[in-house]
Amino acid sequence: MQIVILKDAAEVAAYGADLFTAQLKRKANSVLGLATGSTPVALYQELIRRNQQGEISFSQVTSFNLDEYLGLDGSHPQSYRHFMNEQLFNHIDIDKANTHVPPGDAKNPIVACDEYEARMTQAGGIDIQLLGIGRNGHIGFNEPSSGLTSRTRVKTLTKATIDDNARFFAADEYQPHLSITMGIGTILDAKKVVLLATGENKADAVSAMVEGPLTAACPASALQMHRNAVIVIDEAAASKLKDVEFYKHIENENQKLLQHLASL
Ligand code: GLP
Asked: Cα separations (Å) of 138 from 84, 90, 132, 141, 186?
C-alpha cells in the first residue's frame, strides 16, 4: 500500500484527480471504476474542470460503478445512477452508453450481478478503481464479514451504514436496506486502486485498514493484498495511524524517485 498523507480534503481531491488524469493520458480508452459518497465529489469537480479545459477527455472511456441501492431505479434522486449523472457524467464528454451502474431495478438481481461481472470482463477489466471507505471499514457496500474473494452480489446493509446514509433521504422517504455491490474480489482485480478518505470520523477505519490485520471484519484491509493500491488521506483521517512520520518519509522518497525517473 502506498500511503499518501496530505493537509486537507482539497489536496486529497487534487492528488486523486492527478492519478486519474495520468491514467487517461496514458490510455484514452481506460476502464474506470467509480464511486459515490461525499468524498469523491471534489475529485469529480476537478475532473470536470480539466475536461472542460481540454486537458483530458472521457470520449473513449468506459466506466463501472461500485454499487447501487437495490429497489431504486436510475431516475430516483437517491440512486447512485442519478448521483453519477449529476456529479460527473452530465458535465463531461463521456458517452453515457459506456457508463455502467449496477441496476437497482433489476427483475432478477442475482442474474444482473453475474451480467455486471461479465460486462467488466468483456471491457477488459478495470484499469483504475476509485474507492471511499465507510466508518466501519466497508468498501463499496461490502460490509464487515464480506468474503475477501467475493464478486458482485446482493448485500444487506448494516444499521451503521443505513444511519450514515440517512442524511441523503427525507425523513418519510423509503431508504433501501439492500444493495448490489462489486465484491471485494472484484475490487482487488482492478489494476490500480485509489482510496480516498478525509476527516476525523474516518480515522478508526483508516487505522484498521492500514495497520490492522487482514480481516473480513474490516473489508478495506483486503487492499493490503493489492499490488497497486494508493491510500490518499488527509491529516485528520491519518490521526489514528501509529507511524505517520514514516509514511510521509516513504512518500517523500517515492516523489524523489519519480522525479529521477522522469529526468532519465
Ligand atoms: C457509501 C458508499 C461507499 C462510500 C461510503 C462512504 O456507503 N457505498 O462506496 O465509500 O458511503 O461515503 P462518504 O464518502 O460519504 O463518507
From this structure: 20, 28, 9, 6, 14
How many CA atoms lie within 13 Å of 146's alpha carbon, on the beta-carbon side? 33
- Give, using CA atoms, the residue closest to atom 11 of ligand 1: 37
Ligand 1 centroid – CA 253 distance (Å)? 31
Instruction: Give the type of residue at 134.
Output: G
Q: Report in angstroms the alpha-carbon separations of 214 from 77, 100, 142, 160.
A: 36, 30, 15, 21
Residues 188, 34: Cα–Cα separation, whole Å: 14
Tell how many helices (H) and how many strands (E) occur in the chain.
8, 10
Instruction: Look at the pTM and tell me if it is higher than 0.85.
Output: yes
Nearest CA to ligand 1 atom 5: 134
State the chain's mean pLDDT as an integer: 97
pLDDT in tens, 24-71: 999 999 999 999 999 999 999 999 999 999 999 999 999 999 999 999
Q: What fold, for 2-263? A: Rossmann fold (3.40.50)
Task: Say yes or no: CB of residue 137 within 6 Å of ligand 1.
Answer: no
d(CA 208, CA 211): 6
The single-letter code of the amino acid at 193 is V
User: Does 80 contact ligand 1 (Cβ within 6 A)?
Assistant: no
Distance of alpha carbon 171 from alpha carbon 58, whole angstroms: 37
Q: Please tell me the distance between residue 241's alpha carbon and the centre of ligand 1 in angstroms.
A: 21
Beta strands in the chain (DSSP E): 2-6, 31-34, 62-65, 67-69, 99-100, 128-131, 153-156, 178-181, 192-197, 229-234
